[in-house]
């Protein structure tokens, strides 16, 4: 059968395991497509939309944060800090996270704290984008 085995693991939960027809991973170089019998490789995953098609099922779209994807012998392992289905994303929580991260970025803190805030901002903005709440992202100066 023309499938590969996909295993999506978040740091706090196993998320999905099963045969899949295709996968699109958000990477540093943009969207990276994976089909059955892809050559072995490892890529860095960045916050974005991960899309996969389980065998015989509709396309699934989920928000992922940083991590990596490993393809080995027709098995794909996606290891990420967090993953959420669109319906599980709490838009208000993401908006609060964006505000907190922007506040932290404006304060002159250490480079380490700056990066932590930048990562929090990236994750929260990605969640909001997937939720389709782009108005908040566009209207930031009107607040
Ligand atoms: P927060 O600002 O809320 O602390 P965070 O980005 O720091 O968010 P993570 O460490 O990325 O939090 O994720 C912690 C857990 O909370 C994960 O299980 C993640 O899926 C979940 N999570 C984080 N933000 C949201 C959200 N807006 N809606 C739904 N689940 C969320």
If you had to describe this structure to a student in words, what would you say it looks like?
29% of the residues lie in helices and 41% in strands. With 143 residues, it is α+β, with helices and mostly antiparallel strands. The chain folds into 2 domains: 4-86, F0F1 ATP synthase delta/epsilon subunit, N-terminal (ATP Synthase, domain 1); 89-142, Up-down Bundle (Single alpha-helices involved in coiled-coils or other helix-helix interfaces), CATH 1.20.5. Strands 1, 2, 3, 4, 5, 6, 7, 8 and 9 form a 9-stranded mixed β-sheet that branches. β1 and β2 (14-27) form a beta hairpin. The longest helix has 20 residues, at 111-130. The relative contact order is 0.16. The model has no long low-confidence stretch (mean pLDDT 94). Adenosine-5'-triphosphate binds next to α1 and α2.
Give a nutshell description of this structure.
The chain is α+β, with helices and mostly antiparallel strands. It is built from three helices and nine strands, in the order βββββββββααα.
What value does the Rg take, in angstroms? 17 Å
Using the coordinates shown, work out and report the CATH topology of the largest domain: ATP Synthase, domain 1
Strand content: 35-45%
Quaternary state reads single chain
Shape assignment: elongated
Q: Strand count, sense and closure of the main sheet?
A: 9 strands, mixed
End-to-end Cα distance: 53 Å
Q: How many helix segments? A: 3
Return the string of H and E elements: EEEEEEEEEHHH
CATH level 1 name of the largest domain? Mainly Beta
Tally of structural domains: 2
| SS content category | alpha+beta
Q: Mind telling me the CATH superfamily name of the largest domain?
A: F0F1 ATP synthase delta/epsilon subunit, N-terminal
Averaged pLDDT:
94
Low-confidence stretches: none
The CATH architecture category of the largest domain equals Sandwich
Count of extended strands = 9
The percentage helix is 25-40%
Which hetero ligands occur in this complex? Answer: adenosine-5'-triphosphate
